[in-house]
UniProtKB/TrEMBL annotation:
UniProt-listed Pfam families: EF-hand_5 (PF13202), EF-hand_6 (PF13405)
Keyword Calcium: yes
Keywords: Calcium
Coiled coil region boundaries: none
GO molecular function annotations of the record: calcium ion binding
Domain of life: Eukaryota
Transmembrane segments: none
Residue intervals of the EF-hand domain: 15-50
Protein's recorded name: EF-hand domain-containing protein
Length: 91
């Protein structure tokens, strides 16, 4: 008798805008309301990025409108939009 083996692919569910907002806010290491490169690197690492340092630089370039090296509260929506385009999923 032949047994059939079923193979399942894991389901990858994308993060929501609200989830990403909370993840980035939680990585504000000193609570000043701004995300530094180091904070962003940690957040992208948490999201599973293979190149968290590069993603942090790209995020600063994409979302940091005043080019001061930080993502401020007003720029957080742009950061989340960038992360959504990157396609991070819940494993």
């Amino acid at each position: 008798m032949h047994k059939e083996v079923l193979m399942f692919k894991p389901v990858r569910i994308p993060f929501t805008e609200e989830q990403l907002m909370n993840i980035f806010r939680s990585h504000d290491s000193n609570g000043d309301g701004k995300l530094s490169w180091k904070d962003l690197k940690a957040a992208f690492g948490y999201l599973g990025s293979r190149w968290d340092a590069c993603r942090a630089v790209e995020a600063l370039l994409h979302a940091g409108s005043n080019h001061d090296g930080y993502i401020e509260k007003e720029e957080l929506k742009k950061l989340v939009d960038y992360a959504l385009k990157c396609g991070y999923t819940i494993a």
